[in-house]
Amino acid sequence: MLLLRFDGVSKDYLSNGTRVRALESITLDVAPKEFVALVGRSGCGKSTLLNLAGAMDFPTSGEVWLDGQATTKLSDAGLTKLRREKVGFIFQSFQLLPTLTVIENVELPLLLAGRLDARKPARDCLRWVDLEGLEDRFPHQLSGGQQQRVAIARALVHSPRLLLADEPIGNLDTATGNLILELLRRIVTERGTTILMATHSVESTAFADTVIHLRDGRIKEVCRR
Ligand SMILES: Nc1ncnc2c1ncn2[C@@H]1O[C@H](COP(=O)(O)OP(=O)(O)OP(=O)(O)O)[C@@H](O)[C@H]1O
Ligand SMILES: [Mg+2]
Fold first, then answer.
1. Is the CB–ligand 1 distance for residue 199 below 6 Å?
2. Which of 100, 122, 209, 210 is most buried, by the most CB atoms less than 10 A from its CB?
């Protein structure tokens, strides 16, 4: 079964009374354990597509299926549950909470979902991203690459089926960025997670199975390796 399916999806935003079409007739299938890179210029619709894939927003028309569920058919509560259980998100700016320690940041999604036993899975995930020993530091006491690995641990702590990455190496130097891309590849291979990653740079697609080129909200080309 597919993990993610976009069926004729368009997305409009209203900006000062003007309609902006961010995505136009997107049809797209993503299999489980596929690493998909989404490339294209600024404004072509990459973040919009990730938000729809992660059930953070509704399409204007068409349907988004996530793990067999049609997102437009769900209530707000159903959508929140789907998102909490199935999706992890990482960003260019890491978005760690500065007043929480590393381990507390990673525990947070589990605590918000009502789980009481958050410490052990958080420790396990930090070990998995090779950050054992840094649990009690605060985000500002870490390098950029380490902060992104904390964010990855936080995104994986509830074992989501889909990891969405919006420009995950945009704030990192090339060498550190490559380590993060290798880690993302390992997440797909060893944990069986599916990844959808938005990126500006074609070079950072080297670890992906599939590269989708977007232009002006449309799919221009799909390259499968
Ligand atoms: N909340 C919003 N309200 C109005 N227009 C929006 C909104 N979000 C995005 N847009 C518009 O939709 C289009 C797609 O934006 P999107 O953020 O998806 O592009 P992107 O490919 O992620 O760009 P970048 O590479 O700069 O992050 C752009 O024209 C943008 O201006
Ligand atoms: Mg974007």
1. no
2. 122
